[in-house]
Design a protein that fits this description.
Number of domains: 1
Helix content: over 70%
Oligomer: single chain
Distance between the termini: 9 Å
Structural class: mainly alpha
Mean pLDDT: 90
Largest sheet: none
Shape: elongated
Order of helices and strands: HH
Number of strands: 0
Low-confidence stretches: none
Length: 88
């Protein structure tokens, strides 16, 4: 039973990593591009780096929302199916 719980914990961490990865990568790439742009033009405006990153992360979250919901629904269904198998 302990191995099932450990496997469930590992799968939970994997799901959270998969769900956060598109938004984190989009923010990373946008931040890198904006930093290169600021370095080449010597514009040091804080809002120039913050607002585009937030907008890009929101857009990526909106576009990946169906995929994220499907992953969460499948994971939750698997957890509910496993409940009768756990005995204390």
């Amino acid at each position: 039973m302990e191995s099932k719980l450990v496997a469930l914990g590992i799968e939970t961490f994997k799901i959270s990593l998969y769900l956060s990865m598109p938004m984190l990568l989009a923010g990373l790439i946008a931040g890198l591009a904006i930093s290169i742009f600021q370095a080449t033009t010597q514009i040091n405006e804080m809002t120039l780096s913050f607002v585009p990153k937030v907008l890009i992360v929101i857009v990526v979250a909106i576009f990946t929302m169906p995929w994220m919901m499907n992953m969460m629904i499948e994971f939750t269904t698997r957890i509910f199916d496993m409940i009768p198998n756990f005995r204390f």
